[in-house]
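Continuing the series of single-chain predictions for the mutant panel. This is the parent chain; the variants come on the following pages.
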Amino acid sequence: MALQDNDITSISRAKKPKVPSDFDNLEDFLNHARKLYHDDMQADETNREEMAMDHKFAAGRQWDEAVLQWRIRNKKPALTFNHFPKFIATAVGNRRMNETVPKVIPDTDGNKAVAKVREGLMRSIVKNRCADYYRCSRPNIGTPNYAHYY
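Parent structure:
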């Protein structure tokens, strides 16, 4: 979808972002944010690499690349019996069968009927609000995940 002329005009009329009081100007703030992002990504690089290796292993690529190439060159068998999918399916199935739901218990002066209504409201909110979480994240329950939930 391309930008229209009126879209560009509205973008140019947009308010300038507020700069936090700790910074002199927007560029200093953005440079600080970029540095934090870079430092965070660098600090977590090992986790992301290990996660990628775990995903490959769970998908069936379980041989070390150098060993696999050696075996292929020397016409040796390089068999893989991938048993991970059945264990992952078991974990996902168990998680889906045993849903965790909020439980509301009335206080000493509380009303059980009101607590039951509130519990129903909470379940409805969780079900509707977390639909993407349940649909997208749950299938990966057996393998490492890297996501940001909001």
